[in-house]
UniProtKB/TrEMBL annotation:
Source domain of life: Bacteria
Lineage start: Bacteria, Bacillati, Bacillota, Bacilli, Lactobacillales
Subcellular location: Cytoplasm
Similarity-based family: Belongs to the cytidylate kinase family. Type 1 subfamily.
InterPro entries from the UniProt entry: Cytidylate_kin (IPR003136), Cytidylate_kinase_dom (IPR011994), P-loop_NTPase (IPR027417)
GO biological process, one term: nucleobase-containing small molecule interconversion
MF terms in GO: ATP binding; dCMP kinase activity
Official protein name in the record: Cytidylate kinase
UniProt keyword terms in alphabetical order: ATP-binding, Cytoplasm, Kinase, Nucleotide-binding, Transferase
Signal peptide (residue range): none
Organism: Dolosigranulum savutiense
Length: 222
């Protein structure tokens, strides 16, 4: 068993996982591993190569050509796909619409889960996703499950898009989030579900700072 501190943060789309995990990492000096960015990078690469997204074998064929790495910047963590920075590109709407399908493929998950576990073996980490506490790090030191109403999550994502100058309709974002919840919770491989030993935090009416503080207090209790 690893002697390193491993924190798992799971939850549905736009529940605040990444924002919270980054903040906790900064406060406690942990390495933040954005697993969602890894799946998004594979999705972006498949889109760039004009691969049929419904063809798992074609997507799997791309995996050996992909290298994903994280680089700490002055303000945010940067994501690199092979030799190109894709921090912003992987957050575009076309990637968001396809990432659930790509991340449901066994070949993709096995490849990335192996990489994620290797990352957690040599350092103190906080990792967020949908199957961290159940599959990737089942023996994590601490597990948290963030949730929020679909309406609140849609509002957050709509605001996020608008801040980036991307015009979207709230109702469409809400429909996309509800569809993704359904898909992620019912996929055959590593479905989204709360780890039995996770601490649940409903962030619907909480600020990011309040969620971060709740998590840090719990980590430091023991």
């Amino acid at each position: 068993m690893s002697k390193h501190l491993t924190i798992a943060v799971d939850g549905p789309a736009s529940s605040g996982k990444s924002t919270v995990a980054k903040a906790v990492a900064n406060r406690l000096g942990l390495t933040y591993i954005d697993t969602g960015a890894m799946y998004r990078s594979i999705t972006l690469y498949a889109l760039q190569k004009n691969i049929d997204m419904e063809d798992e074998k074609a997507v799997a064929h791309l995996l050996n050509d992909v290298t994903i790495r994280f680089e700490e910047g002055s303000a945010n963590q940067h994501v690199w796909l092979n030799h190109t920075e894709v921090t912003e590109a992987i957050r575009q709407e076309d990637v968001t619409r396809q990432v659930s399908l790509i991340s449901s493929y066994r070949s993709v998950r096995e490849k990335l889960v192996e990489q994620q576990r290797q990352m957690a073996e040599s350092k103190d980490v906080i990792m967020d996703g949908r199957d961290i506490g159940t599959v990737v790090l089942p023996n994590a030191t601490k597990k948290f499950f963030l949730k929020a109403s679909a309406e609140e999550r849609a509002r957050r994502r709509t605001d996020e898009y608008k801040q980036k100058g991307i015009q979207v309709e709230y109702q469409q974002v809400l429909a996309d989030i509800q569809a993704r919840d359904q898909y992620d919770s019912n996929r055959a491989i590593s479905p989204l579900k709360k780890p039995h030993d996770a601490i649940v935090i409903d962030s619907t009416t909480m600020t990011i700072d309040e969620v971060v503080e709740a998590i840090i207090q719990n980590i430091q209790k023991n």
